[in-house]
Design goal:
Length: about 350
């Protein structure tokens, strides 16, 4: 299922409101239009911020493809390309014991026409405008006709509050094989967002600046050996298989665990990677896996994204997160995203 990496082109094609892939792009890069005009983006922002952010508050954790069968393997994952590191961009100072400001919730309308959320992460990039999340927190895999509607990111979200503003997605980059053949080795997305906005008065949008300028941006690690440990940051909310609910999804949670190769059932994957984590699936889809994470700066290198969870020992509790391996094809998708400027909607 892995495709040969082809050098990136410069131009991008956009057709209507569905995902497109044109000859000017790398063979595996899929461009996904979201709110492509300022007027459309303003309408999306008002939808989420109106009535005291009622739609944000009423959103529920996304419950699509949250769990898989999993077996831990003793083998390693061997990189098939040259290693690459993108350094993080440090954001505001993080008080001791606090969570990083780069994490937040992505909100959208599902195929059931109801508001839902996953987890997302602000990334380092030249235009300071990229959010990383799971591919199926961008593309509607229940009704494959393009992107999930009204896509936004709210870093530091808590109970309707938008402490750093709300960021509307303009377009996104994912992998063609995830959209085309549901290859979950490619279940990732990098979304270019406009500058953040808040309501400064009823129905008046005010610009609060670029995403990573406000919260910082995590780095990226590609073609690395399995890390001894990774820090997982997300908003788990769903139940365990035994029916217990250890998390509420209200606040950002963190877990730290070792990584390992996996074999999964229920997802089409060649090289899944696992991490020791008790997070439940609903809400934690899109959670960041950070290696070399520094508590004092709240920054590290993104080296995984939760696309599912698994109960590998059969005790009725999820014990592992599942991610695609971060390889050269993911790097091509990310690099394509770094070239996209967005701007202001206010």
């Amino acid at each position: 299922m892995r495709r040969a990496l082809i050098a990136l082109g410069i131009g991008l094609g956009v057709l209507g409101s569905t995902a497109v892939s044109g000859p000017a792009q790398a063979a595996g890069v899929l461009v996904v239009p979201l709110a492509r005009t300022v007027t459309a983006a303003q309408e999306v922002a008002r939808f989420w911020l109106a009535d005291g952010a009622a739609n944000l508050k009423n959103a529920t954790p996304y419950a699509v493809r949250t769990a898989a069968g999993g077996e831990r393997l003793s083998t390693d994952v061997v990189p098939e390309g040259p290693p690459a590191l993108v350094p993080p961009l440090q954001g505001p100072a993080v008080p001791e014991g606090s969570m990083p400001t780069t994490s937040g919730k992505v909100f959208f309308i599902g195929s059931d026409l109801q508001p839902h959320w996953c987890t997302g992460t602000a990334m380092q990039s030249q235009y300071r405008n990229i959010v990383a999340t799971a591919g199926h927190c961008l593309l509607d895999i229940e009704a494959p006709a393009g992107a999930l509607a009204k896509w936004v990111f709210v870093p530091g979200y808590s109970e309707g509050a938008t402490p750093f503003g709300l960021y509307v997605g303009k377009q996104a980059e994912s992998h063609y094989d995830f959209d085309d053949i549901r290859d979950f080795d490619r279940d990732y997305a990098f979304v270019n967002v406009y500058n953040g906005v808040v309501f400064s008065a009823p129905d008046v949008l005010t610009d609060v600046g670029k995403l990573a300028d406000n919260v910082g941006g995590q780095g990226l690690a590609i073609n690395q050996p399995l890390a001894p440990a990774a820090d997982i940051l997300g908003y788990p909310a769903g139940p365990d298989p035994d029916g217990s609910r250890p998390y509420t999804g209200v606040t950002l949670e963190r877990s730290t665990g070792s990584t390992f190769a996996m074999k999964v059932t229920g997802l089409r994957m060649d090289r899944p990677v696992g991490v020791d984590s008790p997070f439940t699936g609903e809400g934690s889809l899109g959670s960041s896996w950070l290696i070399q994470y520094a508590d004092d700066s709240g920054s590290g290198y993104l080296n995984g994204i939760t696309i599912s969870v698994a109960d590998t020992d059969g005790d009725g509790r999820y014990d592992s997160g599942v991610s695609p391996y971060f390889d050269s094809e993911l790097y091509a998708v990310y690099r394509n995203a770094t070239k996209q400027w967005t701007g202001s909607i206010a």
